[in-house]
Amino acid sequence: MSGYRPVKIKCWVAFLKSKGCTYKSTEASHDKYKCPGCTRSIIHREKDKDIPPFHIDRNLESMKVDKSEFWQWVKDNC
Prior knowledge:
The protein is an alpha+beta fold. It has one domain (7-77): 2-Layer Sandwich (Metal Transport, Frataxin, Chain A). It has helices spanning 9-18, 53-63, 67-77; strands at residues 7-8, 22-27, 30-34, 42-44, 50-51. The longest helix has 11 residues, at 53-63. The two termini are 13 Å apart.
């Protein structure tokens, strides 16, 4: 499965929750999540329909999650 496509917000949030991430706040229309072991907060715009591939890649790096693991999770759960 290609890693160069957007993912629906609903699927992205479900993935974050499956990894133990918790919602922290909303600032200027951007939702902030804190994940265990993350180097920074995971931020996205809930009002958008999709998460762009570049944002997925950067956030997965912060979460220390392999892209193939993420795309397999998407395939199995979304």
